[in-house]
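Lecture notes, unit on protein representations.

Consider one protein chain, 419 amino acids long.
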Amino acid sequence: MIDKTTARDNKRPLRKGTFRQKLYLVLFGLLFGLLLCEIFLRVIGYSFPIFYASDYYRGFALRPGIKGHYQREGGSYVRINSDGQRDREHTKTKPPDTVRIAVLGDSFTEAMQVPMEQTFWSLLERKLEECHAFPGRHVEVMNFGVSGYGTAQELITLRQKVWDYSPDIVMLAFTTYNDVYDNSRALSKTQDVPYFTYRNGELVDDASFRDSSAYQWRDSKLSKLGRWFHDHLRLVQLVHYAQFVGKVRLTEWRDRRAAPAAPTQTGTDEKRPEPTAAEIGMENMTYLEPSDDNWSEAWHVTEGLIGQMRDEVSHRGARFMVVTLSNAIQVYPDPVARQNFMKHIGVSTVFYPNERLRALASREQIDFFDLAEPMQVYAEQNKVFLHGFGSDLGGNAHWNPAGHRLAADLISQHVCLNR
């Protein structure tokens, strides 16, 4: 007769071994499945790269050598060159018989929403050669735009990057939609980028952003390790993309719930109170004359930064010009929509920031060109949307290919007529 205790003891090692085998099989199957997914994503060319990293001087900057699909709006395959610009490679030494134009700006200039050959600065290069703006010389337009930059970071970019390439012309592409409040810590509420403030009547660089937790995390070894995994694993990029889409959907839902009610009608003799950012949105405050200290200071600093940039460019013997870009509502092809917008925020024009910058340029003798007004005329006459993509045509979005093409046409005409 077989002892039952002995039989159970004989079975235990077998059960333990079977469990380990099953665990190994599960792990192997999981790893094999992940490997197949990784291979599939690479075969179809999927990518969702991290284009930005910390920068000691500017808070953040484009990462040299990064390439991949931009999927946040519009869409294009983006390559960042070895010096951290969304552009082709350029030699530091300027070739002979060449006029170099350096373009400073934010996301409109960076222009990841469209292929590089469709950007206004790429088209501008060819158009200036066609109109013989600089007879006998080749034209080289260089893009130094970075998404999210304000005039402060653009001035620092001029100092840290642009002068290495010996430009003949420095063009500041100014986005009136957000550049003014981007220059104010109080309005932008972003702590991990540099600002300039007035101290004893002088503009002073405030680099306290380096002490912020957001900047220190972005610059940490752990964050850099995470970027390494993100760079090398398409599965990690896919998860990141899913998180991004979810965040966008949540933000859109919150915005719809928080959207202000339509303004009530008031009597013709009753003065409507000044709207607030909470009522009409921070970006729309740019269309109003400043009514509080924060906006007054933001404009004061912005104008000072432009003047400082002009002085430094002139000191180097180069030509400085300011080009104000368009906002979606300014060039909306339906004038009724613009009228409704102006009525909602309580203004008689959508060109207040453009006019204010024109006045600054006149006082400071700065070469100035406003794109918004001629673009509005073109959009209305041709019934074409210059901002937005797909279902978001005409929304608060960046230039589409039509917008970039028109901007290049208009800027080239201005430069050719004022060479």
